[in-house]
Specification:
By secondary structure, the chain is an alpha+beta fold. Helices cover about 30% and strands about 20% of the residues. It has a 9-stranded antiparallel sheet. It has a 7-stranded antiparallel sheet with strand order 1-3-4-10-17-14-15, with no helix packed on it. A 6-stranded mixed sheet has the order 19-31-32-36-33-34, covered by helices on one side. The termini are far apart.
Length: about 775
Amino acid sequence: MPKLFAALLGLSALVATAALGQTPAAPASPADLVNPLMGTDSKPDFSNGNTYPAIVRPWGMNCWLPQTGKMGDGWAYQYGADKIWGFKQTHQPSPWMNDYGQFSLMPGTGKLKVDDATRGSWFSHKAETARPYYYSVYLADYDLTTEITPTERAARFRFTFPKTDSAWVVLDALDKGSMVKVLPDQKRIIGYTTRNSGGVPANFKNYFIIEFDHAFTASQVFNGKALAAGATEVTADHAVAAVSFRTRKGEQVQARVASSFISAEQAERNLQEIGNDDFETVKQKGKAAWNDVLGRIAVEGGTDVQQRTFYSCLYRALQFPRRFYELDASGQPVHYSPFNGQVRPGYLYTDTGLWDTFRALFPLLNLVYPEENAKMQAGLANDYREGGWLPEWASPGYRNVMVGNNSASVVAEAYLKGVRPADAADANVLYEALIKDANHAGPLTAVGRAGVEYYNKLGYVPYDVKINENAARTLEYAYDDFAIAQLAKALGKPKKEIDLYTKRSQNYRKLFDQQTGLMRGRNQNGTFETPFNPFKWGDAFTEGNSWHYTWSVFHDVQGLMNIMGGRQKFAATLDSVFTLPPTFDDSYYGGVIHEIREMQVADMGQYAHGNQPAQHVIYLYNYAAEPWKAQYWTREVLNRLYRPTPDGYCGDEDNGQTSAWYVFSALGFYPVCPTTDQYVLGAPLFPKATLHLPGGHDVVLNAPANSADNRYINHLTVNGQDYSRNWLSHSELVRGATLNFDMAPQPNKVRGTQPGDAPFSMSKAK
């Protein structure tokens, strides 16, 4: 009877569901697993990502966001805000870099409000929908709903108004120089904004066009808040336009919007990305575009939270670098150059800091999206042709922030992994750029190599010559020299040239202090900085301390291990990163910077995952014959420091880098040294993941016993063969591979412990 009763209950539930017209929910597509609000609950003194909900196509030139900050505020959207002030076209890569070429639209009803300090409306996240390809929100003060769906350079807006004689939309071209013109007969507003935060020539403009589907009942233009009576056009410091409509209850007013950095005519051409597509068609095409790129990695199993975190991170990683090129009348790429102000043929990408993204973001592109990075490499060649240097931080042109010469890694890795521009001549142009940048200080301290005359003579940038973050520069220059040497070999350059950069790649040794067992700033006369506090942030290091930077020897971990005193000493020092208390010295900054606070609260000792210099550190256990510790700590970070929520990151996300760490680590491997052929093993997070690589090649990662308890690799086969190494080969993966992981709750302390199992290091290479 109990079994029969249960069966009848199940049958009644099915009948009831059918009667109500309900069917079980279909599996969510990758795009609908994304939470664009991940990381938005941030502020200047504490970052949970410092992101914004980017409503955008993959690598799209233009993003759209709901603006909760006032005009010019880098924190343009904060989850804790309660008012929206506009819907902004943005190109902002980081709140610290701020924006350029931005303008906004704001709808309303009743009395017209053009002032951005008064036109805001209350909203609730309960009446907000955010998808990568679509955004909707109810503006309570105006009883209307705004919806946005974008293409790469254009977007459709849909405003649903109440019954009113006074519906309006304000176009704010922002201050610092702008122009607006209303064309009532064409139902259009055109104009430009020059607003930027640096990194542009004097002739920089973003030309825009907004075309409505309703006739205007009235239109006005303003110089700031002052009405330009009787005018249809105004050029001013702060130009604003407003158009009005009469609407029935629920009536939708739609607008097509596009922009161009090239010209007003090109903005019109970019508007044709929408063509005759209605709102729903653009929305579905946007969803399909995201599913296409997100779907190249299919994860199965795991929890709903893990899947949402994975695809939210992958979405973030596939926004950068941003396309800065447009398509001319014949469909060929053309761009406004942020270096010389000219319109030039070819690709250009921007909005990335290579100090961050050389580590995992570009390796992810090379593995899964090589066709996109091939165009990015062509764009880098154009950067050099037009500006004379490679940008280490571009937004959109050269920006003077961060250290290193990490374009060397980005260029060399792509070429070494077969990711090359269509024009073969670009490879030599890029090599020429690397050699120039490696041997000259640039026009900004973040371009070329600051302190290069000391580095090339002494083998390090001295602590006492008034060049900040000198030890960080030295360590990164040494790795960059390794990258140049590898590219020089691949290009068949003279042995003398190869040997020079190979020798320089060992310069990390100049900063190792045997007394403390850590990296330490060194004076011009050869003595080490005194006093020395390994917990001191900044000064000799960049947004970190010696406990973070000591491990920045990506290309020669064995060499670092040797000078530390061998494997056991190396492993014990690595353990200390996680067991030491989160002590810090903030005296260099004169206060606690947000990166320090994010390390302090994470409860992982001195491990600072919220900033990039330490993100590879966990994987170094594989070099010390203790791979199970890498497996333990990667799972801890995946579980504890990421979630698909507004507080979902543990520090600044930084142009896809921290997201790319999650993507790689959830798959079970990571590019510790991007300019080698190897990925270093962690352990997979999901029971199954499949990488659909170009050419029809799949990498299948099977770990059927994977679970919260089973985080350790007991046994691994690759293409059916037992595999004990702690690394995977890029060249083998891209041909397709099947990896079968036997996961267990206890570590296997035999597998991966032989000398031959360790990943590449210069000091062990034959």
